Amino acid sequence: MNIKKANLKYDDTSPFSIEEYAKKLIGKTFSQICEENHDIYLVENESEYLTSHENKRRKGGLGELIEERYFHYKANNDSKADFEKAGVELKVTPYRINQNKSIVSKERLIITMIDYFEVINQKFYESKLWKKSELILLIYYLYEEHINNRLDYKIGYVKLFTPPEKDLEIIIEDYENIIAKIKEGKAHELSEADTLYLGAAPKASTSKDRRRQPFSNELAKPRAFAFKNSYMTYILNNYIINSSEEHESIIKSKINISFEDYISKKIDSYKGYSVEELCNEFGIEYSKKPKNIEAILAYRILGIKGNRAEEFIKANIVVKTIRIGNNRKIREHMSFPTFKFNELIKEDWDDSSFGNYLRETKFLFIVYKFDKENTLRLKGSQLWNMPYVDIETDVYKVWKKTRKIINEGIQIEYKNGKRYNNFPSSSENKVCHVRPHGKNANDTYELPNGERFTKQSFWLNNDYILSQLKKDFID
After folding, report:
1. In whole angstroms, what is the distance from residue 78 CA to residue 92 CA?
2. Cβ burial, residue 336 (10 Å; 0-12/13-18/19+)
3. Which of 53, 336, 353, 439 suits a disulfide with 61, CB 3.0-4.6 Å?
4. Residues 422, 424, 429, 433: is their CA dihedral positive or negative?
5. Where do the CATH 3.40.600.10 domains begin and end in the chain?
6. Element (H or E) spanning 366, and its range?
7. How far apart, in whole angstroms, are the C-alpha atoms of residue 122 and residue 430?
């Protein structure tokens, strides 16, 4: 492979010049970029070069193409920024448009690999992560499922990006939490849901790839520092497109405690209040309270008038309210969105919808408990994500069995006039189970054999949820 010397059409020492040159990519497909620059970047076999880059399984292929065919420098894996003289890192990443016209990032943004032995001795501002994320040239292209050749994807947005100071505070906190877990000898238990904006994303050629780690003989999955999918969606809509949609920030000024402690402190300031007392406090008519009143009250306590907290959207934090009875038990199981039978059977566990949801989602439990007089009172809050071991053992078993049952055919039996199926039940697994989640028995999805069956979803067992809560919530 050879690069024909050419006069660069941008100043590689100037971030502004690099950005202005990159903006000329907007509206072009990758095929057009190759066609317009074929005489500048010379390869031994042009056809072979394009074929390798149109392969959807080739990670980073489109980024390499932009670097080599448009900016005219050889792609590499250096720890330095791509445009070293300007301190600019180039990242090419996809977005998609949902059926409801919302624009979302398709995936997390990989920044740099985590060297478990090296990173434990690096402060954030000295790290490779910071060198690669201090100033990023983001090039977003539109992913469209019906397009088979990814060189036909079109570039939609281009902009330089530096994490704002308020985001950086949480990113640094995320970085330190990841390092702390590695120092505990738990690199093999890292999960993206451990953190808020910055994640430790799995980054391996195969699911069996493992690496050594310090402080433990347990081998760990290769991982990379990455901005989470939810954070990338927020960046695209609010820092690049400048969407008119309003979000309210929980943190209004600099804080000297962690985000989790700040949330807990705010919620705890109303600990012991009944739902009726909280309604009176925040001007909500108790007699006309909506079904999700407990969640609404949590947002009001946090200073949010609606239900669109900026930090929650960036971090993919899902608010879940939990009611503990005066018998110290939880009556309800926790539901998740329905799954489509024909989609689930095509999944691999490492990239399964439910598995990834639990790996990437953090929950804010807002806990209420009925007192002796059967009055529902606020007990507090807890930021929680499912432990790695529970996802990869118990949840995996339920997912695997569910997939097997769908493939082999659901078995139905009737007892005392009620219909039962053989999906995993709550008595079979300590963590989760499968049960109906349709409006009624006629609310169905298609099965592989063409028949239709009542919609189902995964549910967390009520006893398992109770076991994950702080003990003082239950007492």
Report:
1. 17
2. middle
3. 53
4. negative
5. 2-240, 320-474
6. strand 362-370
7. 39
Q: Is the pLDDT of residue 273 over 50?
A: yes
304-319 in b/e burial notation, b at 16+ Cβ within 10 A? beeeebbbbbbbbbeb
Residue 249: C-alpha distances to residues 126, 196, 266, 293 (Å): 29, 15, 14, 20
54 close to 150: Cβ distance less than 8 angstroms? yes
Encoded tokens for 212: 């050594």
Task: Please give the pLDDT value at position 58.
Answer: 53
Q: Return the H-helix or E-strand segment holding 97.
A: strand 89-97
Summarize pLDDT for 49-59 with one digit per residue, the tens.
555 555 555 55
The number of beta carbons lying within 10 Å of the beta carbon of residue 246 is 10
- Given the structure tokens 């849901």, which residue do they identify? 193
Report helix, strand or coil for 400.
helix
Residues facing residue 220 across a β-bridge:
211
What's the pLDDT tens digit per position in 141-198? 999 989 988 899 999 999 999 999 999 999 999 999 999 999 999 999 999 999 999 9
Closest to 226 in 3D by CA, of 200, 202, 204, 195: 200
CB atoms within 10 A of CB 96: 14
Residue type, 456: Q
As given in the structure block, the two tokens for residue 310 are: 């900026």
Angle at CA of residue 93, ends 89 and 94, nearest 5°: 165
Pairing verdict, β 154-161 and 136-142: antiparallel
| Domain range 320-474, its CATH number among 1.10.630.10, 3.40.600.10, 3.40.50.10310, 3.40.50.2000 | 3.40.600.10
Structure tokens at 21: 């040159």
Contact indicator for 233, 314 with CB cutoff of 8 Å: no
Residue 66 φ/ψ, nearest 5 degrees: -65, -45
- Four-CA torsion 143, 148, 149, 154, nearest 10 degrees: -30
Give the count of alpha carbons within 13 A of 287, CB side only. Answer: 0
The SS3 assignment for 329 reads: coil
What pLDDT is stored for residue 78 in this prediction? Answer: 72
* 405 membership: H or E segment, kind and range: helix 396-408
pTM of the entire predicted model: 0.89
Q: How many CB atoms lie within 10 A of CB 364?
A: 23
Give the pLDDT score at 380: 97
- Please state which of the four CATH numbers 3.40.600.10, 3.40.109.10, 3.40.50.720, 3.90.960.10 is assigned to the domain occupying 2-240: 3.40.600.10
d(CA 369, CA 376): 5
